[in-house]
Amino acid sequence: CDQQHFFLLLMAPHYKKSGKRWVPCIRKRLTQSALPPSNGFLVIEANGGLNQQRISICDAVAVASLLNATLVSPAFHLNSVWRDSSKFGDIFDEDHFIETLRKHVRVVKELPENVSAQFDHNISSILNMRTKAFSSQSYYLEKVLPKLLELGAVRIAPFSNRLANSVPSNINALRCLANYEALRFSEPIRILADNMVDRMIKKSALTGGKYMSVHLRFEEDMVAFSCCIYDGDWKENIAMENARERGWRGKFRRPGRVINPEANRRNGRCPLAPIEVGMMLRGMGFDNTTSLYVASGKIYNAEKYMTPLRELFPLLQTKETITSPEELAQFKGHSSRLAALDYTVCLRSEAFVMTQGSNFPHFLMGHRRYLYGGHAKTITPDKQKMVLLFDNPDIRV
After folding, report:
1. CA 293, CA 342: separation in Å to the nearest integer?
2. Nearby residues of 179 by Cβ (< 8 Å), 6 or more positions away
3. From the centroid of its chain, how far is CA 346?
4. Is the pTM of this model over 0.70?
C-alpha cells in the first residue's frame, strides 16, 4: 500500500547520488593564514537554552573574526525558564573548541591577568556595547572596533542574534565551522549519548537497527506560551496563567493583548499533543513495530498525554527509559546538558520528526544535512492542514 511504501522509503539508508551531494561551505570559503596581532578581547554573554546559546557562540566567533579580536569563552546567562547554571566547559569541549578555531579566530578561556587587572578583575567594569539585534558588519567595524582598539576589551551582553545574516560568505563559513566542527559536546555528555544511541540501535532489531526520533515540544512553558487550549478546564487555565507569569512577567496581560486559542490552532501555532503526533505517524504508515525516540523536556501532564502515544508505539524510548537513574544523576537540574543528550540521539536517527518550530529542530536539520551530504530525512508537518484532520469527528487511529 502507499503507506507501507512511504514507510520503507523513509527508513531506507540516506539518499546519496553521485555528483549531487552538498559540499559544506567551510571547505570552499575558509582559508588558513597567519592571524594578525589581536585588536583586543571580546567578552560576550549567551542567553537562552542550549541552541540559543549555540547561535550566540557562532555569532560571537564571526564577530571576533570581523574585529580581529580574541574571543573569551562565552559566559552563559542564568535564564529564568531554563534555570541551568552550566558553564561553557560543562556543555562543550572547550579545548576542542579553541583548537578547531585556532587558525581562524583566537579563543582564550579567560581574560589574561594583566587585562583583567585593568578592569579591577570585574567583568561588569568592561564597557558593554548595547548592540541591537541583527547588527550589520559595518556597525561592528564603525562602532565597536574603535572602542575595542581604545580600551583593549569590550563586552556585549546580552548577545543573542546580534549579527545580521547577510555578511560575507567567509564570515558565514566561520559560523558553520563553529557550529558543526568546533562545538563538540563535553566528554561526559558524549560518552552517555553514544551509549544511548547504541542502545536505541539494539532495541530497533525489528527495523534493522534503524530508529526514528521525534522532538516533542509539549512542556508546560511551551503550552503556556502558545496560549492554546488542551484540557480546557479551570485547572489548566490556572496552571497556564501561573506559568506565563513565572516565565514572562505580565507579557500576556498587557493592554490590547488579544489571546485567541481557536485562531492559534487554525493557524497551526499550537504545539502538537503527543496523541496527535502518534496519529500523524500512524497515518503515514508507521506501525507498532516502529522504534521511536522522543526528545523532550518535562511533558505537561505527562501521565495523561503520553499514555496514548505509548499505546500506539510500545517501542517508544526517552532519555529516562534508555538510561539508568545513576547515569542521568550527573545531568539532573541541567536542562542544557539533558538537551544535548537528546540532540545527539536525534542527530543519529534514520529519520527525524519536528512538531514545533524552535531552535532545536532547526539546528538539528542543518546538522543532519551537513553530516549526510545535504540529504537527511525530516518530517515537517503542515499543522494548518493537520488540524482539519484532527478535528474531524470521524477520524480513526
Report:
1. 9
2. 54, 58, 363, 366, 367
3. 11
4. yes
Distance of CA 389 to the CA centre of its chain: 29
CA atoms within 13 A on the CB side of 35: 17
Domains of the chain plus CATH, in order, are 2-15+188-218+271-390 (3.40.50), 31-184 (3.40.50.11340)
Q: If you count them, how many residues does the chain have?
A: 397
Nearest-Å Rg of the Cα atoms of the chain is: 23
- Tell me the pLDDT tens digit for each residue of 81-119: 667 899 999 999 999 999 999 999 999 999 999 999 999
Q: Residue 199, exposed/middle/buried by CB under 10 A (0-12, 13-18, 19+)?
A: middle
Strands (E), the chain: 41-46, 70-72, 75-76, 107-108, 153-156, 212-215, 292-295, 316-317, 351-354, 377-379
Assigned C-alpha cell, 367: 546538522
Tell me, rounded to whole angstroms, the distance of Cα 384 from its chain centroid: 24
- Determine the Cα–Cα distance for residues 203 and 291; give it in Å rounded to an integer: 7
Tens digit of pLDDT for each residue in 278-336?
A: 999 999 999 999 999 999 999 999 999 999 999 999 999 999 999 999 999 999 999 99
Max alpha carbon distance in the chain (Å)? 73
Q: What distance in Å separates the CA atoms of residue 205 and residue 142, rounded to the nearest whole number? A: 59
Amino acid at 245: E
